Amino acid sequence: MIYDCADPVARRDGLAAAQQAAGRGELVVLPTDTVYGIGANAFDPAAVQALLAAKGRGPDMPVPVLVGSWTTIDGLVMAVPPLARTLIEAFWPGGLSLVLEHAPSLAWDLGETRGTVMLRMPLHPVALDLLRAVGPMAVSSANRSGQPPATTAAQAYAQLGEDVSVYLDGGSAPVGVASTVLDLTAEVPTVLREGAVGVDQLREVIGEVRTADRSG
Molecular function (GO) terms listed (predicted)? Predict the structure, then answer.
């Protein structure tokens, strides 16, 4: 089902359907500020495996996690360093993903994370409503591996089709490029992927930032 979230009734029905689908371990496509995402309940390993299968990629590229509020991350990571708090205040919700050490007690399997998790709070009302209803969701870009990320629900459907139970159509993604990924587990904060937030913007907020090449 594709729900046009520009219509209040369809948006309400779509969010309810997406919440129910995620609760059943099924996949949902949702709009974000950067690109469209394909999402699953982060604490359902089978659903995360289905997400990876739908994209056609393996666990060597772990799935990021989206959250619906700043405070949600306190229960997901080992500790939130002051640097992370500063970045969250500056760029969340928005196009910055932070890599932190995850809490070892969490029962999830996001792929080969080496004890870390990539977290982001998106700047999109439909995504935030869904995340606040479902809780943390494993969300990757809504495309087949190796193909361009979808910036509309139609593009996502063209690639993912019936592998996804519910599509939430929030119009064209306003940013249209993936988030910037910043690794805070490194000795010096390191950009693993340049994207929606510029390196210069990061340096204005926290000072020294390194860059590193990483594909995928």
Answer: ATP binding; double-stranded RNA binding; L-threonylcarbamoyladenylate synthase; tRNA binding
Separation of alpha carbons 52 and 56, rounded Å: 6
Q: Report the domain count for the chain.
A: 1
CA distance 102 to 184: 12
Is-contact 179 33, C-beta < 8 A? no
Q: Is 31 exposed, middle or buried (0-12, 13-18, 19+ CB in 10 A)?
A: buried
Q: What is the pTM of this model?
A: 0.92
Position 129 in a domain: yes
Quick check: 154 pLDDT over 70? yes
Rounded CA-CA distance 166/147 in Å is 21
The set of residues, in sequence order, having a beta carbon less than 8 Å from that of 67 and lying 6+ positions away, is 73, 76, 119, 120, 121, 131, 136
